[in-house]
Write a structure and sequence with these properties.
CATH architecture of the largest domain: 3-Layer(aba) Sandwich
Number of domains: 2
Distance between the termini: 36 Å
Order of helices and strands: EHEHEHHEHHEHHEHEHEHHEEH
Shape: elongated
CATH topology of the largest domain: Rossmann fold
Largest sheet: 5 strands, parallel
Low-confidence stretches: 144-162, 289-295
Helix content: 40-55%
Structural class: alpha/beta
CATH class of the largest domain: Alpha Beta
Mean pLDDT: 77
């Protein structure tokens, strides 16, 4: 499915996370995020990209609402009868629409968007792309068509409890292994926080804390290097304090888990990750069924 992502330039960072998550799950983005910067033919370039799209995803924010370019794009979407899907991310619009019916807020856009299907998400932006991809997969019968969406169709809120969100903790020396695990989880439709995706200039430690707060599971690659890493220790201790589901992967170079992780079910690291892929996914699925004990 080809997707055109419509967003305000002020929300480019969020859009890049969404685009990455969608692309990792097999969706084709019809544009480079931030790629059309101007020039004599920029409007024609945008029109062409929109015409080729099967679905339009609108990142509805206050910046988007006040953008003349966004208003022009919405009119194009409507004129071309493109299926529209709106994402309202609470992490961006913050408290300003709490207490206000979301449809009412969307109807204050020009043109009004209150009758368009929307998803209200409380997830951290780092998980948002994978989460939207998972959600679109669940509703493929709705979005896999060029037909206009039903005018009054409203989709449920996508909150912290609708899917597994995996934080991968590892030492810097285990970066190649962490990347492999990230790719395995993404391939299997999981939302994953992997700090190598952080952009330069991000408030690094604050972002790590937000990701841990929003995670349902923490996969810890426990090796000799990890046991000597202050950062891994901080992440694990914080996850324990927040009562997250922790799944250790025990390296071959270390005989056992440390005291504070002792008693947890762990996976023994194999040279070929494919050998533990099913075990890892099962551990995530099994713990998800007991999610209420972690509230």
């Amino acid at each position: 499915m080809r997707i055109f992502l419509s967003y305000a330039i002020q929300d480019a960072e969020t859009a890049s996370f969404v685009a990455s998550g969608l692309a990792n799950n097999g969706y084709i983005l019809n544009q480079n995020i931030g790629g059309i910067l101007g020039g004599p033919n920029w409007q024609k370039d945008v029109e062409k990209e929109i015409s080729l799209a099967d679905l339009i995803i609108i990142m509805a924010t206050h910046s988007y609402k006040s953008s003349p370019v966004a208003r022009w794009q919405i009119e194009l979407f409507i004129n071309q009868a493109k299926p529209l899907f709106i994402v309202v991310a609470s992490k961006i619009v913050n408290d300003s629409i709490i207490g206000l019916d979301i449809e009412t807020w969307l109807n204050s856009f020009e043109p009004p968007l209150g009758s368009t299907p929307y998803l209200y998400s409380t997830l951290d932006i780092h998980f948002l792309g994978e989460a939207i991809a998972n959600y679109l997969e669940s509703f493929s019968e709705i979005f896999g068509t060029h037909q206009a969406l039903k005018i009054d169709q409203k989709l449920p809120t996508l909150s912290s409890h609708t899917l597994s969100r995996i934080f991968v903790a590892y030492s810097r020396k285990q970066l190649p292994l962490a990347k492999q695990i990230y790719e395995v989880l993404i391939k299997n439709g999981k939302a994953v926080f992997y700090d190598q995706k952080l952009k330069a200039g991000s408030v690094w430690r604050q972002t790590i804390q937000k990701a841990l707060d929003d995670a349902t599971h923490v996969v810890v690659i426990w090796t000799t290097d990890a046991s000597q890493s202050d950062e891994v220790e901080r992440e694990v201790s914080y996850a324990l304090a927040k009562r997250k589901v922790i799944i250790p992967i025990l390296g071959r170079d270390i005989p056992e888990l440390p005291y504070h992780l002792h008693g947890l079910h762990y996976l023994a690291l194999e040279e070929d990750l494919n050998k533990i892929e099913k075990q890892l996914l099962k551990a995530i699925a099994d713990s998800a069924t007991d999610e209420d004990i972690w509230q």
